[in-house]
Amino acid sequence: MKSSVGIIPFMVSLAFSMVLLSCQEAQKTAGELTGPEIGYTISGTVQYWRDQSAAAGIAIQLRSAYGETTCVTDSTGSYRFTGLENHVYQVVPIGPAEVDYYFSPESTEVVISGGEVTAASPNTNYVVDGQEITFNRFLALRYPEVILENNGPWEVVGVEALKRYVPSDTTIFFIGSIPYRFINDVLCRVSYFEILNVTLDTTEIIDNLLAKELAPFTCSEKVHIKSGYWDFVVTYSNGLKGLMRRDNTIRSRRVPPEESLVLGLNSVLKVKNNSSNIITAVEIRGCASIWAHLGTTPQWSGNLLETEIHPGSVGENIYVGSGAYRDVMLVCSENSHSSYFIHENIHISPDNTVFLTFER
């Protein structure tokens, strides 16, 4: 019995060593093997996203419970693993470490069992021809050049990123301040509540993009983030005078592939006073119509003005934490008493300056 137990791991190790030798031989002959092939073969290609050209010299790992082996793509961007038996395999492009690339998809899996080949993960795109399993291509994308700009007077201590899956038929865009999306090729207006719920499928979370705290009116170093639609949750050192944390979120911001982006973390609200009264306070809160769907009453921020806004003048910059829709309350002095006026559903997009004119 002891002799039998010792033989099994040796045979498993020997079997995977044969895969390794096959892979090494494939590298020597630019992906081509001579002589008969025993077992299954997994092959595929890697291309650059920008021009669809062959990505040569990319390291590809074949992983299983028995271990892993690595091939390098040849001049045509091709890789090939031979001599594979029944098992679950994962193909993972890892790329040369010195190159700032990531891959789509990040990996793909396949199960070989009793002569049947099936996908071990959803959306695995492959073709089976006899014992030849050919995966759809991997795309190599260079990381976008993304800089975070703290264009506000508060220290930013963290920026959490949540990648969202946004189907093409549910992508929301704005015409003026009104949100729309296409439904069966027809342009339709959508509710503010729908904006919060159309992109709820989180596929990736980065706890903090910042290597260190971001002082007021400074920029971060380049951050590593993939292209796609992301939510960015901004955490300030001292908050925004009582505004709820949910209000400090930049929602569904598109990071374009292989491009540069400076993402401002705050917006600016400026109030022009065209009335005969003095504006003594400006307060903001999350859009009440949206929060009503969540069964919550949003809280007002408290006065954000440092200086009163006199008739015919424009107030100072009011820095607003990230978040698209806000209610804005203006408090005015009028005949020795105060009155207030609420502007609802003001579209304050991230990294933007919004002018609000008060006339009476």
Describe the structure.
The protein is mainly beta and 360 residues long. It folds into 3 domains: 2-142, Immunoglobulins (Immunoglobulin-like, Sandwich), CATH 2.60.40.10; 145-265, no CATH class; 267-358, Immunoglobulin-like, CATH 2.60.40. 11% of the residues lie in helices and 46% in strands. The chain has helices at residues 2-28, 192-197, 288-293, and strands at 40-48, 59-64, 67-72, 78-84, 87-93, 101-104, 108-113, 116-119, 126-129, 132-135, 138-142, 145-150, 156-164, 173-175, 178-183, 186-189, 202-206, 218-219, 228-236, 249-255, 260-264, 266-273, 278-286, 318-321, 325-334, 337-347, 353-358. Strands 1, 4, 6, 9, 10 and 11 form a 6-stranded mixed beta sheet that branches. A hairpin with a 2-residue loop joins strand 14 (173-175) and strand 15. The radius of gyration is 28 Å and the shape is elongated.
What is the topology?
Layout: H1 2-28, E1 40-48, E2 59-64, E3 67-72, E4 78-84, E5 87-93, E6 101-104, E7 108-113, E8 116-119, E9 126-129, E10 132-135, E11 138-142, E12 145-150, E13 156-164, E14 173-175, E15 178-183, E16 186-189, H2 192-197, E17 202-206, E18 218-219, E19 228-236, E20 249-255, E21 260-264, E22 266-273, E23 278-286, H3 288-293, E24 318-321, E25 325-334, E26 337-347, E27 353-358
Parallel strand pairs: 1-10, 1-11, 12-21, 22-27
Antiparallel strand pairs: 1-4, 2-3, 2-5, 5-7, 6-11, 7-8, 9-10, 12-18, 13-17, 13-19, 14-15, 15-16, 19-20, 22-24, 23-25, 25-26
Which descriptors apply to this entry?
360 residues; mainly beta; Immunoglobulin-like; 11% helix; disordered N terminus
